[in-house]
Write a sequence for this structure.
């Protein structure tokens, strides 16, 4: 019978998540050499090469890809067993920007729960600036937001591209103000859109100002206005209309993860969160 040790499997999953021995070592609070030793121990024990490493890339082998889900289940079972020894539940407060939260959110929360069944997850949705201020005040353990212009810190989770969307039969006459639906004036995506219009001297008017992203989505889907959305979060049934109406191209941004947590348990949760977000984007793409 092949007996697996937890640390070796943790090392393998971290390498798979980050596609980097260095970043995996940082996440697990150890050295690159130690990570390599643990991976070799695991590969020797199961008699399969799990990771293919070249000077330019680190990726799963065919056997590693087959083993990954089982490895995650193995670690989850270990976490549940350890969590069962204590009634102490920890709280994790996560902020997610309204213009970032999408279909991957259930995946993120499910992965966090599997990683740490003793974790109470509290999610707060708001605009990026409000969440960043809350994070700086220590009210959030972590925040996934659109990068703000004045901040260069945070772990990049992926690019974010924006465009103009409306229903296929929406009409806009040249020379008339662009009819916009947007979130409150503090919304960063609204700022991106209105600055782009102002830079081209294109008149605009807000015909719908929503209190939530779902309300703005509903207004655009109903054909009331044009909206600026992340390309991955465009309302169902809408189409990109920037070129059709001569609207300016919207600049791209980045989605970043902010956190100052340093203990091993929390770092593991953050690594799980980041990996789940990236994996969902790759699958969706």
């Amino acid at each position: 019978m092949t007996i697996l040790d937890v640390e070796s499997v943790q090392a393998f999953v971290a390498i798979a998540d980050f596609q980097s021995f260095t970043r995996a070592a940082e996440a697990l609070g150890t050295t690159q050499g130690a990570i390599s030793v643990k991976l070799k121990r695991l590969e020797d024990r199961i008699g399969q090469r799990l990771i293919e490493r070249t000077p330019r890339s680190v990726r799963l082998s065919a056997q590693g890809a087959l083993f990954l889900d089982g490895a995650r289940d193995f670690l989850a079972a270990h976490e549940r067993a350890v969590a069962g020894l204590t009634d102490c539940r920890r709280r994790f407060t996560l902020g997610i920007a309204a213009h970032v939260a999408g279909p991957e959110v259930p995946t993120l929360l499910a992965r966090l729960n599997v990683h740490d069944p003793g974790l109470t997850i509290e999610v707060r949705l708001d605009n990026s600036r409000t969440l960043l201020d809350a994070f700086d005040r220590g009210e959030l353990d972590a925040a996934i937001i659109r990068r703000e212009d004045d901040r260069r810190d945070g772990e990049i989770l992926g690019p974010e591209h924006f465009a103009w969307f409306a229903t296929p039969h929406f009409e806009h006459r040249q020379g008339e103000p662009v009819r916009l639906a947007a979130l409150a004036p503090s919304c960063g995506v609204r700022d991106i859109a209105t600055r782009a219009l102002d830079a081209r001297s294109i008149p605009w008017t807000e015909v719908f100002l929503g209190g939530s992203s779902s309300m703005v989505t509903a207004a655009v889907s109903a054909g009331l206005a044009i909206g600026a959305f992340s390309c991955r979060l465009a309302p169902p049934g809408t189409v990109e209309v920037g070129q059709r109406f001569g609207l300016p191209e919207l600049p791209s941004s980045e989605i970043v993860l902010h956190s100052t947590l340093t203990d091993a348990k929390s770092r593991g949760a953050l690594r799980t969160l980041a990996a789940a977000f990236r994996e969902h984007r790759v699958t969706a793409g």
User: Anything to note?
Assistant: The mean pLDDT is 83. The chain is about 40% helix and 20% strand. The first helix runs from residue 6 to 18. The chain has three domains: 6-83, 90-157+255-284, 162-251.
